[in-house]
Amino acid sequence: MKTVTVNIVTPDGPVYDSEVTMVIAKTTSGEIGVLAGHIPMVAPLAIGAVKLKKEDGSTEFVAVSGGFVEVRPEKISILAPSAEAASDIDLARAKEALTRAEGRLQKKQDDIDFQRAELALKRALNRINVREGNI
């Protein structure tokens, strides 16, 4: 099966760079699957897991917190504000972030930015799910 180069980059630097047979990502309008030779496109990403299917049949996961995917026939680039490979996610830290976000959402105070707290909750849940393989 043909492969395509995938790069996942954040403002802090590269997170992933490898050859894969398929990329599955959650965009703001739904999930997409991309193979080598796909027509060029750009799409905004939602908070979610990027599934990277390898030639040997294995699958790797990277948690992304939004961003954009740019598809070209020979290369797929993902630009995200933050991204972590499943093996790099600190589960204890992600669970602490989840607890903090839940606490903020439960407080009924005017000084709490609920939209920001909801996004923090979604990012924490995504990181936990990717790390634990609940995708």
Quickly describe the structure.
With 135 residues, this protein is an alpha+beta fold. It has two helices and eight strands. Strands 1, 2, 3, 4, 5, 6, 7 and 8 form an eight-stranded mixed β-sheet that branches.
The overall strand count is 8
Largest sheet: 8 strands, mixed
Q: Would you list the SSEs in sequence order as H and E?
A: EEEEEEEEHH
Task: Calculate the terminal CA-CA distance, rounded to whole Å.
Answer: 24 Å
- Strand percentage lies at over 45%
Please compute the radius of gyration using only Cα atoms: 16 Å
Measured as a percent range, the helix fraction is 25-40%
Number of helices: 2
Oligomer: single chain
The coarse overall form would be elongated
Uncertain ranges: none
Structural class: alpha+beta
> Taking all residues together, what is the mean pLDDT?
93
Search tags:
135 residues, alpha+beta, eight-stranded mixed sheet, 8 strands, 26% helix
Could you characterize what this model shows?
The protein has 135 residues and is of the alpha+beta class. Helix content is 26%, strand content 46%. The protein has helices at 91-106, 114-132, and strands spanning 4-10, 13-20, 22-27, 30-35, 41-53, 59-72, 75-79, 83-85. Strands 1, 2, 3, 4, 5, 6, 7 and 8 form an eight-stranded mixed β-sheet that branches.
